[in-house]
Sequence to fold (335 residues):
Amino acid sequence: MQRCLALAQKGIGLVSHNPMVGCVIAYEGEIIGEGFHQEYGEAHAEVNAINSVTDKSLLNKSTLYVNLEPCAHFGKTPPCANLIIENKIPKVVLGCVDSFSEVFGKGIEKMENAGIEVVIGVLEEESRALNKRFFTFHEKKRPYIILKWAESKDGFIAPNNQNEPFWMTSDESKKLVHKWRAEEDAILVGRITAQKDNPSLTVREAEGANPTRIVIDKDLKLSTDLNLFDSDAKTIIFNTLKTKEIDNNYFIKINVNNLIKSILQELHKQNIQSIIIEGGATTLQSFIDAELWDEAKIFTTNKILTKGVKSPTIKGEIISEDKIGGDKLEILCNG
Fold:
């Protein structure tokens, strides 16, 4: 199962809106086939693993290991549970059950009805953690929310009266942030950050696809000459005035009285499973105050600002601490 999880991880940033899945087939304790879900819409892990087995006559005497319940429905590809049954694989070991309503126990039921022995819950916690985005999306009906910011040694996120883009962290940290962007579906900033920093919010210093860019601009005050409105990536503009599509920019009118929840509901409709909130302080704090965040990635630099915009106030469990190019990186989880 550990090998399944390692294989599955290779699909990060490539398979959304599907989960990351790895599969291993063993005969008499030896691995005879393995595979993972490599790209959204392409073959699932179980298909790739079965296809990799050279001697198919061994399948009816083998055990298939997979970190997530095999699908039982026709989606972009045929059901994996059917393929396992067709190949007469006698035993399947699962990391965890798939809580997506189209699957949720149906793959297990189908295999057990065909006489297959199904073992559930091997490295279950690790299997669910790997697909935290997928499970949050289907169980909480919202994207997995990652907060990200950098702050000075004395607790400021930006200087006062900032009139041009301001970057506090090291080049190594900047590259890591671009890698993170490639791993998530979307990235969000508020109007003031968009206006002052003029960010592109694209992946330039790492490999991977650009996330969907999102900006909150209630009264549509932002200039369309900003980098956010170029053609490099899709941009969603949440506002209170109009719903309209112009080129690669999607204006979506939302309810300002329950802003954060309205945004998350709309993102769920848009099938966005994960989002990075990149600031500024007011936007970040609004998600924290609403208790609508899952993970926070906070860089603390060696810079001293003395005065400026105070960093968000957050409480959470520190799950890791690292040094990245001279910056301290703390990752917190919410509860």
Remarks:
- DSSP finds ten helices and 17 strands in the chain.
- The first helix runs from residue 2 to 9.
- Residues 30 and 62 are 10 Å apart (CA to CA).
